[in-house]
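Table 4 source record.
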Amino acid sequence: MPRLRSSPALFTLAVILVFVVLGLADRHVDLTGQVGLGFATWLVLLAALRPLPLERRVQTLLVVGVATCMEVVGSILWGVYTYRLHNLPLFVPPGHGLVYLAGISLSETRLVRARPRWFVVAVAACAATWGVFGLTVLPRFDVGGAIGVSVFLFFLWKGRAPVVYGGVFFVVLFLEVWGTAVGLWQWHAMTPGLGLPMGNPPSGAMSGYVLFDIVAIAVTARLLRARAAARHGQAPAALAAEPASSR
């Protein structure tokens, strides 16, 4: 794991391979087997978190928590998409953490760090093209996806970490195409209650992941400020206003 963490590109590739193995394995197991896959995925995530700084670990665990809540709403309660066994597989929560870490690692590769603006432009072009294709040439009409793409493009334009969002986009792009292709989950043709046509996968699937990232980054910053304030015996607002040079 330390060797993987020292190479962002290698770590991203390793996470992709984990998802490939999960997809192939899940097709041949029952609920008991999924518990085993979930346990193994948690071990992978914890191993990946161990060498990271506190801030990154907190962000990742917050992504896991927020994403899991949204999975329960989106799949179990709302029924926008359905997993193979009509449940929430136990490998899904830690999988969200790995998606986040892989997206960050992709954004930290040498090529992306050398040309971050071009990377964001390329991400925006890919997302927009996918959205347009969903409205024109793809097998299923994807209005819901087009709305999601619009939200994602807004995040790229106004968000605090567009390069990270871009890295997450490409990881999610692979994950959604792979997951639906091997039957891990399927998106319904119509959004329940809204009647919006959706692709399988919808082009805007990555907008939800970016929402998880935004929440995690914002909440982590507040938690760490409060922690630092407690150590200094100050109110969080006072610490935030204090010049960095004086701390």
